[in-house]
Structure formats: structure tokens, C-alpha cells
Write a structure and sequence with these properties.
- The radius of gyration is 23 Å and the shape is elongated.
- Strands 1-10-2-9 form a four-stranded mixed sheet.
- It folds into two domains: 96 residues, Zn peptidases (Aminopeptidase, 3-Layer(aba) Sandwich), CATH 3.40.630.10; 129 residues, 2-Layer Sandwich (Alpha-Beta Plaits).
- The chain contains six helices and twelve strands.
């Protein structure tokens, strides 16, 4: 049995998401030299060595936001993609100079960019950030790629599945759902492997991946009604 289509009910603010950026996770490792805190001048603090790398990656994020284009995502978020630094761990305890530091981040990339291009850009940025540091020249930071590594997903908008949903959505909601792109990754990316049309449609909400994540109940009810009406229409059911 093959499904006619797939709808992911991510909180899309009642818009229809048909694309998302490519996403990769990366890790930067910096080596220091441990020493007693009372003799910290004899050690090399990996936390301090990581600071210019963090600043350089923040600058790269702003540069990419200004120079790249991804209209359907920009329409929703105001920028084409994001480079986010999500985790920093370092040192063994407070009374020892930090002998190591590990920074982990997530980079989004737009259609037309390749994984290799983005990886090289990150690695070059990290290397250039510390090229004037003698310790880092002798002990260069290491960049690793791990975990999530997906290409951009782009759904054609001319499938009967999509067109029928937009028609039903207009009837239920009173206006056609807006076509948008998600700045986060979606499970819709798996649909092309099965040659299945797919999009995301869900309620309004906020604070995603943060404290007090929520969806709005009235919006949730509208989305539920829309999905039920579409399922009935697509399956040929009558009142």
C-alpha cells in the first residue's frame, strides 16, 4: 500500500510549509594546557582560545543571513537561514585551567548550496579565527561533523494532493493558506524517498524548543477542522 500524501502538523501558524533548509551539526574542539589555578599563567586556557572562534562564527551567521536568498523562509522568519551555537563545555573543575573546550552548533543552508561547500566555509572560518595565535597554530582546533545532516527539502506545489488541500483550506478558513518555508527541519524531507507529495500544516504557537512551548487552542481547533475536512474530501466522503 502506498500513501497518497503526507501532512506533518508542525506549528506552521496555519500556513502551508513546502520547504526547509539543509541542516548539519558540527563540533569544534580546542585543546589547552591544564595548570593549577594558582599558577594559571603557566597554563593555556581553552575557554579563552575558543572565544575568537565563537565571535567568528557569529559574524559568519550574519554574513550568510545578508548574502543568501531563500524567499519562502525569509517570508516567515526574516532571514534565509541560521548558524546557531547551542552548546559549550569546557574544563574539569574550577581550580584548574581549562585544558579543553568543545563547542557544538547547527548550521542551516539554502537550496543551491552543498554540504561540502558549507562544511568548508565553517572549517575555514574556524581556522582563520585563530591563525594569529601561536598556540593554536601548533594545536589547531578540530572541526567534526556529527548527527543530523540533511539536504534542503523543496516540495513541488502543483500536485493534486496540494491543490486539493489549498481549495479545502480556503473553504474552511475563509482564505487560502499562505505558502511558506520552515526555517527548521521537518519530517517531510523523507517523503521524496517514497515519491509521495507532502507538506506541513499546523496551528499557531510559540517558544519552540524553549521554555513554555505552546500552541494556541483556537488555532488548533481550526487546523483540526481543516485536516478533517480535507481527509473527507480527498477520500470522497459525503456529509
Amino acid at each position: 500500500m502506498k500513501a497518497d500524501g503526507m501532512i506533518i502538523s508542525e506549528p506552521s501558524r496555519e500556513g502551508v510549509w513546502v520547504t526547509h533548509p539543509g541542516i548539519m551539526y558540527f563540533r569544534v574542539k580546542v585543546l589547552g594546557l591544564p595548570a593549577h589555578a594558582a599558577l594559571s599563567h603557566k597554563g593555556v586556557n581553552a575557554i579563552v582560545k575558543m572565544i575568537p572562534i565563537i565571535k567568528a562564527l557569529e559574524a559568519l551567521d550574519l554574513k550568510r543571513a545578508k548574502t543568501l536568498s531563500y524567499p519562502l523562509v525569509e517570508k516567515q522568519t526574516g532571514r534565509p537561514c541560521n548558524l546557531s551555537l547551542g552548546k559549550l563545555t569546557a574544563g574539569d573543575w574550577v581550580s584548574t585551567v581549562a585544558g579543553w573546550a568543545v563547542l557544538e552548533g547547527r548550521v542551516g543552508f539554502v537550496p543551491g548550496e552543498t554540504k561540502k561547500q558549507v562544511q568548508e566555509e565553517i572549517e575555514q572560518t574556524v581556522g582563520e579565527a585563530v591563525q594569529g595565535d601561536e598556540w593554536c597554530r601548533e594545536h589547531p582546533p578540530q572541526v567534526e561533523w556529527f548527527g543530523w545532516m540533511t539536504d534542503p527539502w523543496v516540495e513541488p506545489q502543483d500536485s493534486p494532493f496540494m491543490k486539493n488541500f489549498l481549495t479545502v483550506g480556503e473553504r474552511v478558513l475563509g482564505a487560502p493558506p499562505v505558502i511558506l518555508g520552515s526555517s527548521g527541519g521537518l519530517d517531510n524531507r523523507f517523503a521524496p524517498y517514497f515519491h509521495t507529495p507532502s507538506f506541513a500544516f499546523g496551528p499557531s504557537g510559540g517558544n519552540h524548543h524553549s521554555i513554555d512551548e505552546y500552541v494556541e487552542i483556537p488555532s488548533l481547533l481550526r487546523v483540526t477542522e481543516t485536516l478533517a475536512a480535507f481527509a473527507a474530501d480527498w477520500c470522497g466522503l459525503t456529509d
